[in-house]
Structures are given as C-alpha cells and as structure tokens.
Specification:
This protein has two domains: 84 residues, no CATH class; 113 residues, Up-down Bundle (Four Helix Bundle (Hemerythrin (Met), subunit A)), CATH 1.20.120. Helices cover 46% and strands 15% of the residues. It has seven helices and five strands. The radius of gyration is 26 Å and the shape is flat. The N and C termini lie far apart (86 Å). The N terminus is likely disordered.
Length: 260
C-alpha cells in the first residue's frame, strides 16, 4: 500500500500538472500518496460468516470501481443511479469476494446504497435443520435465495410466509398471524420463540404493506431467529425423543428373560 503522505494543497498543485481530467488527478494523487476520501483501499468491515471459510472475520477492501452506467475508476459518487463493484479479502482465510452495491439517484453524493449483494463466490441458500417440516424449509430456502440476491423486501415476505407455514404444521388454526403466534405462548412455548416469530411477522408486514426497506443485517437477523425457533420447536424435542427411545431399548435389552 502506498504510504499516506499529507501534503499542503499548494504543494500538490505545484506537482500535479494542470489541465488533467478529474480521473487523472485522482490517479496522480494516488501515485503521490495524497489521501483521497474516494479511495479507501484500507477500509475494513466485520462479517458474521465469510462466504469462503464460513468463519466470523473481518474484510479488507482492495479495489473498487463504478460498473454501471459506465465502467470507470473515477470513484467520486454520482448524483444519478449507479452501481459499485468492490473486491474484499477475508483477513482470516485470505480469500477474496466481489460485492456489488447499488445506489439510487440523490441530491447528496455521500449516501447509503439501497442494496448490496455478494456477486462471487455464489452464496448457497440458507436452510433449516433436517427435523423442520419440508414445506417450511422450502419457503425458508427461497427466502434465503432472495436475500442473497439483495431482494430484501421479497426475502422478508418469504420469511414471514415460512413462519405462517410453521404455525400450520403445529396445528395453530388460521387467522390473523399475530394472534396465531400468541397461541404458541398459550401452549407453553418459550417466550423467546414467540418474540422471534413476531419479529419475522413485523418485518414481512412492513415490507409488504408499507414498502419499508430494511438493511441486510435486519433481514439476516430474522432468518437466524427462525433457525433458533425451529431448534427449540423441532430439533430439541426430536433429540429428547431419540434419547427416550434409546433408554427404552436399553431397558428392554437388560430385562432378564422370564422364559424357561
């Protein structure tokens, strides 16, 4: 990495030839080590699970460019809609990934992207445990595909649908989703599970009916809450039943025979 050298503006003007285009000025400034707020190759961000190694890590950005509406390394944010391609490296496994961020038109150059998705490596869809009902798992996987593609409102709606299907599997009668979720509490289901389902319900409702846009982290959190809920409702009971069956089998085996 080129060391950052803080130069006075007057010195920079003496060194950089006049008449250069803005992009050329940026390149010349980079070569001289002049800091540029649009070129932060040393940026770092945490990641819950690297798509390469699957571990919680930190990412370091190595390169980026505008890829739409035109390809350019001029990184001054546009006022018009544009898409930015970025190359990040996992500090743990040292493998790279390509992320694309899309921006809508805005009056301010510095603004948040409306969507961000990992272009490569291709993320496999999330799935539920084997003990979860197949219909619930199908909706959950479809929601994850939408999430990986950056269609966050679609993902939120499908995660909500997965919760509805799960309640149907548990025998909760049809009706308003909020009331159906509350019936779980009446059956003694842990309050954390009930709260998780309400989180998924609200995320889906606001996405479908109010057009609210959520961050990738918010949608990912709800997906994880559903996993935790299915662990409580299906996986743990299945393990308990398996242990009971194993104990019963041992008792039958160890019981002395009364024949003869």
């Amino acid at each position: 990495m080129v060391p950052t050298v803080h130069l006075r503006a007057s010195v920079a003007l003496e060194v950089i030839p006049f008449g250069l285009a803005f992009y050329d000025l940026l390149m010349a400034a980079e070569i001289m080590g002049v800091p540029d707020r649009y070129r932060r190759y040393d940026a770092e961000e945490p990641i819950d699970a690297c798509p390469n190694c699957g571990q919680s890590s930190r990412l370091r950005r190595h390169d980026r460019r505008v890829v739409w509406p035109k390809i350019t390394h001029n990184l001054a944010p546009l006022f018009d809609p544009y898409a930015m391609e970025e190359v990040w490296e996992c500090l743990l496994c040292k493998k790279s990934m390509i992320i694309v961020r899309t921006f809508e038109a805005g009056e301010n150059q510095e603004r948040e992207p409306v969507a961000a998705s990992i272009l490569y490596p291709v993320l496999p869809p999330k799935t539920l445990q084997d003990e979860a009902p197949a219909a619930v798992t199908s909706l959950y996987r479809e929601a994850s595909v939408a999430e990986n593609a950056g269609a966050l409102r679609g993902a939120a709606a499908l995660y909500r649908a997965a919760v509805e299907q799960l309640l149907t599997d548990l025998g909760i009668p049809d009706g308003k989703l909020g009331r159906r979720i509350e019936q779980l509490a009446d059956r003694g289901v842990d309050v954390d599970v009930v709260t998780s389902f309400h989180e998924a319900r609200l995320l889906g409702n606001w996405s479908l009916h109010d057009g609210v846009e959520f961050s990738p982290e918010e949608v990912s959190d709800v997906a994880e809450l559903i996993v935790e809920a299915t662990e409580e409702l299906y996986v743990i009971p299945a393990k308990r039943e398996e242990m009971r069956a194993a104990r019963a089998a041992r008792r039958t085996k160890d019981t002395p025979s009364t024949s003869g």
